[in-house]
UniProtKB/TrEMBL annotation:
Renumbered residue ranges of the record's region Disordered: 262-286
Domain Phage conserved hypothetical protein C-terminal positions: 185-256
Protein name per UniProt: Replication protein
Organism: Candidatus Kurthia intestinigallinarum
Polar residues bias locations: 265-274
Taxonomic placement: Bacteria, Bacillati, Bacillota, Bacilli, Bacillales
A Pfam family recorded for this sequence: Phage_rep_org_N
Amino acid sequence: MSEITWIKLKTDMFENDKIKLIEALPAADTIIVIWVKLLAAAGKANLNGYIMLTENIPMNTEEMATIFNRDINTVRLALQTFQRYGMIEVEGEAVRIKNWEVHQNIDGMERAKQLTRERVRRHRERKKQVQLEAPNEENHSNVSVTLRNATDIDKELDIDIEKEIDKEKKDIVPDKSDTIPYASILDYLNEKANTAYRATSKATQQLIKARFSEGFTEHDFYKVIDNKTTTWLNTDFAKYLRPQTLFGTKFEGYLNERVKGNENVRGSNGSTAGESKPSLRGFCSN
């Protein structure tokens, strides 16, 4: 995707009749925030108003709830509202901002796409030239001199390409300096709920990291998992025993629920110093 760092917002957007109708809804503020987040996501994707996770994968409702850090039911309500008022178009899982080309600077966005394609093309040509001109070590020094004599523009383009490559690597390679126990938490959830969620999922890691940044601890995650598996397992709510529900914005509420059978499971406010991680098979009695 050709990333755009800006979008256009009209200064009179709150005078629009559709926005006024939305402001009359109970969850008005959250719905309007979701609208702005959709506009920003469409600009970032730069694919004619489509809300995309990657260039080929549209962002679905659950992914929106996680990335936008909003309750999934509110996101569903927002999308239904936007669709009713003709603000979005829905094609399967794909969501597109209606009349995107009317409200945004399409020429500027298309120019950004062309520049990105040109950077990639020139980068590949230079790599190919290096391979052709440096078949052995004897020619390597000459090639290095040639590359060092590249124009300032070429150097800047190389830097942009390297940044894009680094960004893609960060999306799929876990940060080794990150000490958050993603694997332990997901292993515990999978065993308790009989699921198979991956600790390498970027969306799941973002949720867990957000809770750790708020001061919650590893043991808090185990308690939330115990509380909700005790109340939801083998019920219609079992489908919600998933990271985006358990580790989302309602985490503190789940943590402080008084669930029969889990009274002796302590979270961050009651853990003793040096208390070790519970066994996956015996953290609490059910």
